[in-house]
Amino acid sequence: MVKNTPISKQERKRQDFALLLRCKVDRKKIRRELNISEDTIIRVKKAMSHRRSVSRRKGSKAPKKLIQTHKTRIYHLLSQNPFLSCTDIQSRLDLPVSAECVRLHLIKSGFCRRRPEPKLALTENTNRLD
Predict the structure, then answer these.
(1) In terms of residue numbers, what domain contains 14?
(2) What pLDDT score does 111 carry?
(3) CA-CA distances (angstroms) from residue 117 to 38, 87, 112?
(4) 125 inside domain
């Protein structure tokens, strides 16, 4: 049984192009029919000469820098003080990632920037009711 997966337009265009090339159709006709550039034709033809498939190869994803324990620690720190900056979070938790990575994680998690409201500091003078 074959798994029925949807094919993207780009993938379909590559497959059509490869089929037309194998059938020895003129490159100018292929360009007009599929509306692709000459550079694309050259690149796909080169890929076909190196490997049999013209489909996009799967890229290797880099390992995640922030592991789940780091994410949990960030969440707990922010629940105690939501006004910390990403640089403060990174330095307080001694994370092996940059502050930019922490910021991107917070954005993906749905956190928003906050600043404390400007209020007067309470001192002895402000507490007195004259």
Answers:
(1) 9-50
(2) 84
(3) 59, 21, 15
(4) no
* Global pTM exceeds 0.90: no
Among 1-5, 87-91, 122-126, the minimum mean pLDDT is found in: 1-5
How many structural domains does the chain have?
2
State the average pLDDT over residues 40-52: 77
Query: Is 18 within the bounds of a domain?
Result: yes
Amino acid at 60: S
124 in a structural domain: no
Given a contact cutoff of 8 angstroms between Cβ atoms, the answer to whether 93 and 70 are in contact is yes
